[in-house]
Write a sequence for this structure.
């Protein structure tokens, strides 16, 4: 019987585990799991700010634990930009949907996993989906730019609901 992983793959996986990462094999490549601090590429963030104006970030890059974005109400007068910790992506997608129902406008950056329950329960038929061409290069908290992400990304735009009178 053939071994599923090569010796090199096993060593790579072990080295990531020692650094606090967990590896998952998905769509033909390895993804590090459990590292939630990757930041949005500056050029993408600038494009979003140019289109939507000043942004509120419920999970900001310089997170100081002064609030929990999942527990607070989000503003209605600014667009909320959410690049969530991917370890809790379902919770964040649900929170985006709930805050949208309360009147917030939200731009959500997540992996393009359109086959998931959270996508169909909260995004599909509720948000405009923009597929990002190519793979994003997220920014490590120490400022290093990563290699291209091992997954495609989408922007899910929950527009403000305007009530007719």
């Amino acid at each position: 019987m053939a071994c599923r992983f090569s010796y090199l793959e096993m060593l790579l996986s072990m080295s990531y585990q020692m650094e606090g990462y967990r590896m998952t094999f998905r769509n033909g490549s390895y993804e590090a799991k459990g590292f939630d601090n990757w930041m949005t590429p500056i050029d993408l963030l600038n494009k979003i700010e140019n289109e939507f104006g000043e942004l509120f970030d419920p999970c900001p890059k310089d997170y100081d634990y002064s609030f929990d974005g999942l527990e607070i109400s989000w503003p209605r007068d600014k667009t909320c930009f959410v690049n969530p910790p991917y370890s809790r992506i379902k919770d964040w997608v649900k929170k985006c949907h709930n805050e949208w129902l309360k009147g917030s406008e939200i731009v959500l950056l997540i992996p393009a996993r359109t086959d998931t329950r959270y996508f169909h329960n909260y995004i599909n038929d509720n948000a405009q989906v923009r597929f990002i061409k190519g793979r994003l290069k997220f920014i490590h908290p120490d400022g290093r730019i990563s290699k291209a992400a091992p997954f495609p990304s989408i922007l899910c735009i929950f527009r403000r609901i305007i009530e007719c009178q």
In short: Helices lie at 7-18, 42-52, 89-101, 117-123.
